Amino acid sequence: MLHSKSFVKKSRAGRVTKVVREHYLRDDIYCGASICKVCDSSVARLSASASTILVLDTNVVLNQIDLLENPAIDDVVVLSVVLDEVKNKNMAVYNRLRALCSNSLRKFFVFSNEHHKDTYVKEMSGESKNDRNDRAIRVASQWYQSHLGDEVRVLLITNDRENRRKAVEEGIFAETVESYVKSLGQPDLLDLLVQPASEDVDMAEVEDLRPSKRKVIYNEHKPMSEITSGLHRGIYHQGKLRVNRYNPFEAYVGSESIGDEIVIYGRTNMNRAFDSDIVAVELLPQDQWHEEKSLSIAEDEEDEEDVHLVPSSADDAPRTTLPQQDSSRETNPVSYRPFGRVVGIIKRNWHSYCGSLEPMPMPAGSGSVANALFVSKDRRIPKIRIQTRQLENLLDKRIIVAVDSWDFLSRYPSGHYVRTIGEIGDRDTESEVVLIENDIISRPFSAQVLACLPPLPWSVSPIDLSNPNRMDLCHLRVFSVDPPGCKDIDDALHCSTLPNGNFEVGVHIADVTNFVFPGTPLDDEAAQRGTSTYLVERRIDMLPKPLTEDICSLRADVERLAFSVIWEMTPEAEVISTRFTKSIIKSSAAMSYVEAQARMDDSRLMDPLTTDLRNMNTLAKIMRLRRIDRGALTLASAEVKFQIDTETHDPLDIGMYQIREANQMVEEFMLAANVSVAKQILDHFPLCSLLRRHPTPTREMLEPLLRTAAAVGLHLDVSSSKALADSLDHALGDDPYFNKLIRILATRCMTQAVYFCSGDLSRPEYHHYGLAAPLYTHFTSPIRRYADVIVHRLLAASLNIDKLPSIFQDRPQLTSISDNLNYRHRNAQMAGRASVELHTLIYFRKRPTDAEARIVKIRSNGFIVFVPKYGIEGPVYLTSRAEKGGGEWYVDEPQQKIKKMDGSLSYSVLQAVKIHMEVVEPQPNRPKLQLTLI
Predict the structure, then answer these.
(1) pLDDT attached to residue 562
(2) What is the pTM of this model?
(3) Contacts of 562 (CB under 8 A, 6+ apart)
(4) In angstroms, what CA-CA distances link 314 with 480, 751, 913?
């Protein structure tokens, strides 16, 4: 059946055209109910025992997705009109709804009501789109009831009073979400309900458990029409709010309109904005730009936290190319940096948060509703008030809470309980919190994903051997060098001497795309995860283990499929030729960095494999020096290595990660392969190649480094990466650790390297500052990075091995993929660091320790130190919380010193100090590693 709709459209040029839209209607769309005697039961999703089938309206899905994900809610019909509306309004909820509908363990069925001849409704004259959609939902509910008869009740769930009234008048069973949940007889489910925002101000104020005095705490947000007008007139400035990780009362908004970051100081000026919200900001009068309290003192005393010392961290700096410093700003009245206040929220970034409830007495009466304050583990998040009927079971648990609303009359936002993670302090629970807080996808791989894998045991087939596009390189002496215990080996090397005295050097990368095909559930899952995540005690894989540890892993003594980059090089490491080929290899050795280094260092060993290692190392050193001569930076980071108990998974020892020549050798050839591949794919696909760039840091971003260097009599030239690299090489002091400290500080001033689509930027913007490379990409780790999977497909297409997938013709989609890769890559880094912090706490909980540290940042009430032995950084306080003004100490900003007023004692940046480290818990359920001066 065909339904057509025509209308007249007028172009800008005045030309009038008639547009006809055709809408096809069918009578063979199945209802999805197992009890139905008319429809095909083989496609049924709803259970045969269901006494009630639920039909949801759009707002119920948008607001109550946490409830819907609970297994107690099942036998749900999701109408296509609802699915489309949700997709248009909230992609995050849409994705969660689609996951429910595709989960074979859940009874959710998508019904195409918009294409069924009995449920499609035409628009009526004068009817709004919202009213038309509500009518379509009622018509579909009515059809389901008549279609299935009296054997089952079809219940429309809607909180819309008018929609519910019309439904009842039309003979449809209809209830609110709350009344339906109450009918289930599971009181705990009521905790999952999102309360309408209008009810927020009528709730008891949790902080003192007395009725609200309705005192106005925050300014009302400006309406969007006023915000839009203000942005156009330059009165307001738009940007993303970044709350300081160590001081939740201090935030920054990077504003393109003024080319600087605007400081937002205090909860009042933040005006209910959360970290990562897109906000509209109004500048404060200029005479207030430097009259705030010292930025290192927290403004709001109701949160009794040590937030008044603000350590620096590269993680806190918003990574834009705007002029800026890291988010831990110096208190420098001379800078006159702009201060502002939030006047409106343009886009919320609320999501679920992990934490625990603030300890409180139990209310009288079992099962009664208790008001409680939720405290997030993330200090940047304000306390959230919730209502719960299960307080006794939650007080000692890590739980997840979602935010529902934040009224301007309420000190805290209101939210609801989502689920319990586990016992507070349990290592597995706290590791799960790390994953949830950083939005790491750790769910088990679905049956659909696993169905994409080849059966085990897998081996190279005769078809692979006879493939004209794949070279058999099993005769080569290939080897891999990785961290100890590595199972997901995705790169291997070879180096053989040619008759002309040159070397043939190969980088062989696991041919993941031979098993991961575009558009499959396996590919979709890998694209969503973006990268593997490495925690201290485990790995969260991007791809299923049969691929990562067996089929694709380039293990020793087994034939594996690879994608190879092979160069002919002179003994001076000059590249004569480069070729790319799909290949079959058989690794002769899988070595750890320590084993490879020991081979190279043992003069008694002269076997062929050791000779290959030494030749490669010689070439790598030349390549490295040449790269540094071009301006590549040799930076440093405080990487921590744990020794983990194999049975308990507790840390046994902790120390700085040691970099050997073997590490640098492998890194050099991986960099070279990535550069060669970047050139190849860009030559063939100039508009759709996936590349990686590292934007040049601005002078303002490097200012903290320059100030620190100047304080110790060191001049750093930052006019180019080459100038900075040379300056760092000459930054030598009496302290053997001095140079590494300077390099660590330099690393923190850098911008974030990012993936991008080549068609989105001009050629000069492709530059990778840190590597001093005009072109760069990621090709060498497809087992653990989806970016490399994309690059493998581009490389294969450039060699006419495979066709380029159709997605590469869709630039907006490629940009979206790049954005997700950057998001996932950064989250994986943050999760890794959070895992290190967690295991550091576990390690030092029973091991109070004294150690030597270096001062890396001066503050008005203390300083930040770095502990080289353990790779740990943290604050050391010189003044107590009561001494807000700094007490008897004052800061000499130019000299980067903090001195006693009487001049008897002073501490300066990069000075060595002795500290004591122990785990304390000043706030319930918030343990921290406290550093104190000895």
Answers:
(1) 97
(2) 0.83
(3) 473, 492, 508, 509, 510, 511, 554, 582, 583, 584, 585
(4) 33, 9, 23
Maximum C-alpha span of the chain? 94
**Strand stretches in 389-501, DSSP E:** 397-405, 414-423, 470-472, 478-482, 491-497
State residue 708 phi and psi, 5-degree precision: -65, -45
For residues 390 and 368, give the distance between their C-alpha atoms in angstroms, rounded to a whole number: 8
Fold of 25-192: Rossmann fold (3.40.50)
- Where helices occur in 730-806 by DSSP H, the ranges are 738-747, 786-798
Q: How far is CA 591 from CA 26, 52, 615, 784, in A?
A: 63, 61, 17, 19
pLDDT tens, residue by residue, 165-202: 999 999 999 999 999 999 998 888 999 998 765 433 33
**Tokens 């750093």 label which residue?**
716
pLDDT value of position 326: 34
Residue 600 near residue 835, CB atoms below 8 Å: no
How far apart CA 119 and CA 147 sit, in angstroms, is 11
Give the architecture-level CATH label for domain 197-216+351-424. Beta Barrel (2.40)
Q: How far apart (Å, rounded) are the C-alpha atoms in residues 440 and 823?
A: 10
Residue 258: name the closest of 242, 234, 276, 278 by CA. Answer: 234
With a cut of 50, list the residues of the chain below it in pLDDT. Answer: 198-212, 291-334, 882-886
Angstrom distance (rounded) from CA 387 to CA 190: 9
> Where are the domain boundaries for CATH 2.40.50.690 in the chain?
234-347
In a 3-state reduction of DSSP, which class is residue 386? strand
* Dist. CA 147–CA 113, nearest whole Å: 13
pLDDT tens for 313-357 read 333 333 332 222 333 333 333 456 789 999 999 999 888 899 999
Specify the DSSP element, H or E, that contains 66: helix 65-68
The DSSP result for 219-277, as a single string, is PPPPPHHHHHHHHHTTSEEEEEEEE-SS-TTEEEEEETTTTEEEEEESHHHHTTPPTT-
The 3-class secondary structure across 149-163, one letter per residue, is HHHCEEEEECCCHHH
- Backbone angle region of 209, left / alpha / beta, with phi > 0 → left and psi within -120 to 50 → alpha: left
Strand, coil or helix: 573: coil
For tokens 């007495």, what's the residue? 361
Class of the domain covering 234-347:
mainly beta
CATH number belonging to domain 848-933: 2.40.50.140
Spatial distance between the Cα atoms of 565 and 677, rounded to a whole number of angstroms: 8
Name the segment(s) of the chain with CATH classification 2.40.50.700. 197-216+351-424
Closest CA to 853 of 463, 223, 311, 397: 311
Secondary element (H or E) of residue 432? helix 427-437
Give dist(CA 266, CA 281) in Å, integer.
Answer: 14
Cα distance between residue 759 and residue 273, in whole Å: 35
Sheet with strand 76-79: strands edge to edge: 108-111, 76-79, 52-56, 153-157, 173-175
Q: Which two tokens stand for residue 293?
A: 């309290």
List strand residue ranges (DSSP E) for 424-558, in order. Answer: 470-472, 478-482, 491-497, 503-510, 533-534, 539-540
Contact indicator for 459, 446 with CB cutoff of 8 Å = no
- H/E stretch holding 84 reads helix 80-89
CB 347 within 8 A of CB 913: no
Contacts of 668 by beta carbon, 8 Å cutoff, 6+ apart: 620, 623, 624, 627
Strand 76-79 and strand 108-111: the pairing is parallel
Q: What are phi and psi of 67, to 5 degrees?
A: -65, -45
Residue in 375, 406, 365 with CA at minimum distance from that of residue 305: 375
| Residue at 236: amino acid letter | Y
Tokens 């760039």 locate to 693
Assigned token pair, 54:
């639920």
**Ranges in the chain annotated CATH 3.40.50.1010:** 25-192
How far CA 388 is from CA of 201, 359, 413, in Å, comes to 17, 14, 15
Specify the pLDDT at position 19: 55
Per-residue pLDDT at 318: 32
